[in-house]
Amino acid sequence: MTVGISVEKGKQDTPPLELHYLGDKVLRQKAKRIAKVDDEIRTLAKEMLQTMYSSQGIGLAAPQVGVNKRLIVIDTDPENPANAPLVLINPEIKKFGQQLCPFEEGCLSIPGVHLDVIRPDEIEVSYRDEQGKPKRIKASGLLSRVIQHEIDHLDGVMFVDRVENEIALSSQLKQRGFALKSVQRIA
Predict the structure, then answer these.
(1) Does residue 118 contact residue 102 with C-beta atoms inside 8 Å?
(2) Which HAMAP family match?
């Protein structure tokens, strides 16, 4: 699960990419598969990691920086220099575990909003790494949740679409200046 992309884990004064926020239509588009993993994709992944670290996040999907590609970056332990980030290109969940669990989620595209979302605790995911090699991992706990959250972004879904507590959702969105009409409930 190591990445061949070297990135300093720290906040930059000016992150290389600009985040997009709830209400921006780019976040609701289904991202396109990446046909070829090349230096352009590796550069994008590196800049996404730099932007994620600068924003104090643990995951970021390409649509969140206005890029309509199926690419996500994750680091569930950004304070630990020894923990290598993950780059997942064209990730696809192959299997969901049966145990569902609620957990509070937040999102760099909806700053300040933190609400419980119910998701499977375990998943199995296939993807290509930053060299274009096919990979498959089993993930549980926080890593599983972050992968699911970021893959949702690739499908135009945001975590607030999955929140069941409508009162808390409405309240937090309003407090942070986001419109409830931007939420697209998942049935």
Answers:
(1) yes
(2) Pep_deformylase
List domains and CATH numbers for the chain: 25-182 (3.90.45.10)
Q: Does 153 appear as a known binding residue?
A: yes
Condensed to tens digits (0 to 9), the pLDDT of residues 130-180 reads: 999 999 999 999 999 999 999 999 999 999 999 999 999 999 999 999 999
Summarize pLDDT for 45-89 with one digit per residue, the tens.
999 999 999 999 999 999 999 999 999 999 999 999 888 999 999
Block residue for tokens 């998943």: 123
Mark whether 150 is an active-site residue: yes
Query: What would the two tokens of residue 38 be?
Result: 């090349």
Catalytic pick among 47, 105, 130, 150: 150
- Tell whether residue 114 is among the known ligand binding residues: no
